[in-house]
């Protein structure tokens, strides 16, 4: 029987990063994955394929809507070849997951294919034609999550679909109904909106992207409406039915009136649930909460002391980079180090266009905590860079402590916000004040100048270009 210092169950961004860090620290490491390809949700059916389709659809939209204005004439019609677009996405995925095989090899990590199941706290059985058993001093559970559903919806995965099917449709929906106005629904909704679908979003709460700062939600709603999204907030979906190729969704609005939506596809994007099926976790004393998450302490250690859990399967934001940080954290903890993660500084991003990105506290959280703060905002449209590319929507907002000027939160919506948020993370990691950022030189012309201007606005209303 093969014996390891660490076995990692699940090869998503949490699991494969944990395995690499364990190997770097000199531990004999194995990784177990039940699917044929490594990389988990993120690389196979999440972050990477969704961004590939967002990029392709963005190019198409630019060609149709903006090329002429830029002085680029294209003879003949511009058409979408969906089959080719999906095939390109798949080749991006294939290359990326292939890269994980390379990394496992390079770091001498043994890869096992099959469902990993605890036999006892130090032995794992791996399913397959001939089940294998391995021994591990420590195990890291990184089994991720799956799309959730509402109890009354029958996901036929043909027309009533999850994000996984939305990444490989064979036709462009005429009318896509999206249940859930969170990140995944809006990103995939925008892909098909750009390709020509009518898109209707139905959200239960009173705003889209409800966990982000309300200012971002308001601006994104405005921009998406300009892009002809139908957005219905405060609507409670009651039923989803199929009649041939038609999907009928019934919901109650705020006043209790029943509203009927008819489309040809319905994307159910109401969040994700932690995944622990087949793990046999309880049998080795690993507690699973009512919400299906694996219970962990501040060291990400489960109730069994040599078993850790990370990523989507534990509490916290369901984000690839959060899972990665936790993977490194647990590897270093097992190696006897004392790592640290500041969860307040894990950025959140929505890859619509304009992009939405944030780090730190929202205004709502600061108000609730009774923290006195000041605000500095700057609109993207006031930047030369924005006018050059005609990306005029959005703003950067900096929230800073009223007395100390320390930056407490940065919220932005605009072109390339997903990349720009890194500056805010660095500033907050070093506990910068708004004035510190306002005194840093930002290259001109760049979108990042909006960060400097917002910092100037937060420190005595000193924005220069407003
Ligand atoms: P996962 O990536 O879910 O990996 C878990 C792996 O464990 C899977 O491969 C599974 O097969 C395997 N597994 C489960 N049980 C067993 C078992 N018993 N034995 C063996 N293997 C097992 N996040 C971002 O940060 N940015 C984005 O842009 C982004 N976009 C997304 C877009 C979509 C459409 C979706 C669905 C998600 C997106 N996410 C994004 C979320 C991101 O994918 C997850 O947060 C991330 O993948 C979680 O990583 P993980 O390692 O915890 O689990």
Automatic annotation (TrEMBL):
One of its GO terms (molecular function) is dihydrolipoyl dehydrogenase (NADH) activity. Keywords: Disulfide bond, FAD, Flavoprotein, NAD, Nucleotide-binding, Oxidoreductase, Redox-active center. The active site is at 444 (proton acceptor). One of its GO terms (biological process) is 2-oxoglutarate metabolic process. The keyword Disulfide bond applies. Residues 4-327 form the FAD/NAD(P)-binding domain. Its EC number is 1.8.1.4. InterPro entries: Class-I_Pyr_Nuc-Dis_Oxidored, FAD/NAD-bd_sf, FAD/NAD-binding_dom, FAD/NAD-linked_Rdtase_dimer_sf, Lipoamide_DH, Pyr_nuc-diS_OxRdtase, Pyr_nucl-diS_OxRdtase_dimer, Pyr_OxRdtase_I_AS. GO terms for cellular component: cytoplasm. The active site is a redox-active disulfide bond. Belongs to the class-I pyridine nucleotide-disulfide oxidoreductase family. This is Dihydrolipoyl dehydrogenase. It comes from Confluentibacter flavum. The gene is lpdA.
